[in-house]
Amino acid sequence: MTEQDSRTTAICRVGPSGWSYPDWNGIVYPRRRARGFDELAFIADYFDAVEVNVSFYRPIPPEMSAQWVRRTAEYSRFKFTVKLHQSFTHERQDYSRGAVDQWLAGIKPLSEASRVGCLLLQFPWSFRRSPESVDWLKRLADDFGGHPLVVELRHDSWEVPETLAELHGRGISLCNIDQPQLPHCVAPSAHATGRVGYVRLHGRRADTWFAQRIESFERYNYLYSAEELDGWLPRIRQLGTQCDEVYVFANNHYRGQGPANALQIKAMLEGNKVDVPPQMVEHFPALADVRIADSAGFRETLF
Predict the structure, then answer these.
(1) Span 209-221, pLDDT tens digits
(2) In the chain, which end has fewer C-beta atoms inside a 10 angstrom radius, N or C?
(3) How far apart are CA 298 and CA 136, in angstroms?
(4) Which stretches in the chain have pLDDT values below 70?
(5) Side-by-side strand order, sheet with 196-201
(6) CB 202 within 8 A of CB 223
(7) In b/e form, how buried is each residue of 233-266, taking b as 16+ CB within 10 angstroms?
(8) CA distance linking residue 189 with residue 176, whole number of Å
């Protein structure tokens, strides 16, 4: 087997962005729940990974992440990718070493259990390439470099060869995103600059992406068609030839659209039908095409 051939067996984990949404009740989660029903364990039963969003809004107490480990104990393949707090990516005011240590302490139980896939540094569209922005990225890489890092850059000022070279030099992965194709928004890509390949699908709501005075969920209120998802398969597979692991997340979370599209992607990548919660087929008829009646559980996808 050649070196190139051996690189085509990268593990691909597919999942939703977050798991605690009231509007998923009766759509992703059953209308009637058995006593002790656990949303996170339910997600781990159907997916290979999940993005942690709560860490963006507040530091995670280590007791909370320790609970996540216990709640997914029977799913040893299941990984968490954790979004950095907004003070590091959106507010960009000077931060202390103590703030870094506090944030990292919150995910220590996940790290000790080998459940952290990577840390996601999601920057807003307003974060544009400049010497100051490049220096900010370097500082974050130094402070959080104990884990694999993935950086999401939405403004097209970053679409220059220097960006890829700088990220590659530090082993930081670039997040390849699907977003509305509006002026100065980065286009879909398949860049591999670190050992982790990463894809985030945000939806294509061009009418709400930059809109003001709307409910925030409306930016992600979008359901991909099978044809639109199929366009991402070559990019995902290309990442699988260059990275050790590939993560694919559907962030179009409103009313369970993200999990629905994630199940479709998983079926496409595996080339097989997959297990689908029965109640989801009621809301997303297209899932009937990828659903099997019975399943022994999800497997890690191998390219």
Answers:
(1) 999 888 888 999 9
(2) N
(3) 39
(4) 1-9, 294-303
(5) 49-52, 79-83, 116-122, 149-152, 173-178, 196-201, 245-250, 11-16, 301-302
(6) no
(7) eebbbbbbbbbebbbbbbbbbbbbbbbbbbbbbb
(8) 5
The backbone region for 56, taken as left when phi is positive above 0, alpha when psi lies in -120 to 50, beta otherwise, is alpha
CB–CB of 251/222 below 8 Å?
no
**Would you put residue 297 in left (φ > 0), alpha (ψ -120 to 50) or beta?**
left
Pairing of strands 173-178, 196-201: parallel
Quote the CA–CA distance of 219 and 256 in Å, as a whole number.
Answer: 14
Q: What is the DSSP string of 273-290?
A: -EE--HHHHHH-GGGGGT
Amino acid identity at 178: D
- The pLDDT of residue 2 is 34
| Partners of 198 in beta bridges | 175, 247
Which residues, 6+ apart, have CB-to-CB distance to 283 below 8 Å?
27, 255, 256, 260
On the 0-12 / 13-18 / 19+ scale of CB atoms within 10 A, 281 is: middle
The model's pLDDT over 172-199, given as tens digits with 9 standing for 90+, comes to: 999 999 999 999 999 999 999 999 999 9
Q: Read off φ and ψ for residue 248, nearest 5 degrees.
A: -125, 120
Q: Which of 281, 270, 276 is nearest to 293 (CA)?
A: 276
Query: Is 42:256 a contact under the CB 8 Å cutoff?
Result: no
DSSP-derived letter for residue 194 is S
DSSP letter for 155, please.
Answer: B
Burial class (CB in 10 A: 0-12, 13-18, 19+), 21: buried
Tokens of 240: 């699988």
